[in-house]
From TrEMBL:
Keywords: ATP-binding, Nucleotide-binding, Transport. Residues 1-26, 250-269 are annotated as: Disordered. This is ATP-binding cassette domain-containing protein. GO terms for molecular function: ATP binding; ATP hydrolysis activity. The keyword Magnesium does not apply. Residues 31-268 form the ABC transporter domain.
Amino acid sequence: MSTAPRPPLGSAASAVPDSPASPAPEPRAIVELDRIGMEFRHHQVLRDVTIRVPKRQTLCVIGESGCGKTVLLKLMIGLLRPTRGSVRFDGHDLNRLDSFELNQVRLRFGFLFQMAALFDSLSIYDNVAFGLREHALFDEARIRRIVHDRLREVGLPPGIEAKKPAELSGGQRKRVGLARALALDPEVMLYDEPTTGLDPIMSDVINELILQTQRTKHTTGIVVTHDMKTVRKVADRVVMLYPLPRLRPDEPQILYDGPPDGLEDHPDPRVRQFVRGEAGERLSELTQGRG
Ligand SMILES: Nc1ncnc2c1ncn2[C@@H]1O[C@H](COP(=O)(O)OP(=O)(O)OP(=O)(O)O)[C@@H](O)[C@H]1O
């Protein structure tokens, strides 16, 4: 058995030369979900969902609580395997990768979790350095520079490095989480409800940082959010999912896929109600135990 280190996964699609006669190609998708179905012990959460995310796009995924948005993010990085359909990253079918290759793919993602998910017992410095050390890519002097730079980019002073997460505000913890997610220069950033629990000003700071990341680092962004201000500020495109229990079997689960400015006056009242935050029939449905 060979013990030689394997080269990093390359781009499968880039190996295909462009034909000079062919029309301008569609921007290449970096993340592709193709006819995904997802069930947990007979509880079906996603049905026949297809989403292609081109490089550098910022996609916001919206929809009622429980419709499967976080599951979608986990499928994209292979933390969950779909019951049906395929997930591809930069041309590679995640289902066909072994654990080494899947790890190589995950290195190309940054993930800002809902509650920032910092390690309480570690200092802020060690939290941001964690992934850099785990992957043993750099010496400590280089790690120190990267940690300083990332904390500065998210607007946190150097004095914060020695503190523990419990000493920080929610907004500061989110920014540390972002600094950590950006430490390895990811090509794709996944944000799971990045502004939940923050005041309006701090929410806007986080939205600005998402925009800044997209503009200066040219990352692809996938943002799961309930916050329509985030959608209006950062999205190039919006996908709205609907909870399966409230759909007919023949209805598509994606109610909307398009630019953010098409949401407000969309013909489907379920889309309009969601973006305007109107309860509509929901209160009576909930009181009748149908929600
Ligand atoms: N590992 C799991 N095992 C069993 N069920 C799961 C698992 N992960 C998610 N689910 C179920 O899948 C459904 C969708 O969950 P998900 O977290 O994706 O919803 P969401 O749209 O992100 O909701 P919210 O907006 O409230 O965060 C829920 O009913 C949840 O209970």
